[in-house]
Each structure stands twice: as structure tokens, then as C-alpha cells.
Design brief:
Elements lengths: L1 H34 L4 H9 L4 H19 L3 H34 L5 H25 L5 H32 L6 H33 L7
């Protein structure tokens, strides 16, 4: 039974990492599309990485419920399974935010000033991508000190997205003060906000990965 349980956990680990990779690739292709004069084909490619992710998340949830029912894990094993369950939920939210980012920005990309893209959108999305890469790296590491270092890197990148979004918001509002531009401003900011929210999810996931491997209490994410 122990061997079957370990195989079930390894399968979960692989599938969850696969979802992180898909979200990462979607965000990378979104940035490529933005820098390539709002390339619609690349935006569509980015959306393709998110296809069926919701059903994959549901499938993982079902596997977790099955593991709990069949093996009744305790102590560290239970902590690991519960962490996977919570991570799965965070990935669903990150996937939704990525999908809304792509959809919202595709509609307004051509109207965004190149200076804004260069100074704010690009570094904002770059930090989100870095945070996702750090999270993916954490899945492969068991050394607690190394995990904590990478967790700190995720926090640094997420902090950058907060600061960049705040500056971007002010820049857009200041440059589009005309009342007739309200809906455009609203739609653009809502799209950009999604990138910052994806980075928020990476903090939660990194926190859960650290808790899963170290124990103790969950840090405030």
C-alpha cells in the first residue's frame, strides 16, 4: 500500500507541476505577443496553453479525494496531500487571471502607448513570469534553507508587481484624464491588474510548498 500511495503522490506532483508550466508558458507567450506589436497569433497561442486547465484541476481534486479515502494519510503525509489540494485551488485562480489578462489586453493592446508597455507592462509581466519560474523550481527542492531562499525570491518579484501596477495605474489615469476615455481606462487597468494578481497567487503557492516540506504554521501570504 505504501508503494501505491507514493506513486499516487508522485502522480499528483507531476500533474500539478504541469499546470504551473502551462500557466508559465501562457504568460511568456502573452509577453511575446505584447512586444511583437500585439501579435494576435501569439495571443491565441498563449490562450492555447490554458485550454482544459479547469478540467485538469478538477481531475486532480478528485484524485486527492480518492487518496484521502483510500490511504487516510496522517501527520506529514496529510500535510502534503492537503497542501496539494490548496495549491490546486490557487492554480485555478492563476489560470483564470491569466485567461482574463490575455482576453482583456488583446482588446486594448493597440491603444496602449509604447512607452507604457516598455516602462510598466513589460517589467510587470516579467516579474510575474519570474515568480512563476521560482515556484516551479520549488517543486524540485527538498532542502529547507534553499526553499526559503527561493521563497524570498518569489516575495521580491511579487512586491515588484505591486509597485509597478501602482505606478502603471497612476500613469494611465494621468494620461487619459478625459471622461470619454473612462471605459478604456477601466478595461485596461482591469487587464493589467490580472498580471499582479497572478503574482499574488505565486506567493500563496510558494507558501504552501514551504509549509508542505517544512511543517510548522503557514506564513501569511
Amino acid at each position: 500500500m505504501l508503494e501505491s500511495y507514493e506513486k499516487a503522490l508522485e502522480s499528483l506532483n507531476v500533474e500539478i507541476k504541469g499546470i504551473v508550466e502551462s500557466i508559465l508558458r501562457a504568460n511568456e507567450n502573452f509577453l511575446d505577443a505584447t512586444l511583437d506589436d500585439c501579435n494576435i497569433e501569439k495571443f491565441n497561442l498563449a490562450k492555447g496553453y490554458l485550454k482544459n486547465l479547469s478540467s485538469k484541476v478538477q481531475s486532480i481534486d478528485n484524485q486527492i479525494i480518492k487518496i484521502l479515502a483510500l490511504y487516510s494519510p496522517e501527520a506529514r503525509d496529510l500535510r502534503e496531500v492537503v497542501s496539494f489540494f490548496k495549491i490546486d485551488n490557487e492554480l485555478l485562480r492563476a489560470s483564470s487571471n491569466t485567461r482574463n489578462l490575455i482576453r482583456g489586453f488583446t482588446e486594448n493592446c493597440k491603444s496602449v502607448d509604447e512607452e507604457i508597455i516598455k516602462e510598466y507592462v513589460t517589467p510587470l509581466q516579467t516579474s510575474t513570469i519570474k515568480a512563476l519560474k521560482f515556484v516551479l523550481e520549488m517543486f524540485e527542492i527538498d532542502d529547507i534553507d534553499e526553499l526559503k531562499d527561493i521563497f524570498h525570491n518569489v516575495i521580491v518579484e511579487e512586491d515588484k508587481t505591486d509597485e509597478l501596477y501602482a505606478m502603471l495605474e497612476k500613469k494611465i489615469i494621468d494620461s487619459m484624464a478625459n471622461e470619454s476615455d473612462f471605459m478604456k481606462i477601466h478595461n485596461m487597468l482591469r487587464a493589467f491588474r490580472r498580471s499582479e494578481k497572478i503574482a499574488d497567487r505565486t506567493i500563496s503557492i510558494a507558501n504552501l510548498l514551504l509549509y508542505m516540506k517544512e511543517g510548522g504554521t503557514l506564513k501569511k501570504a
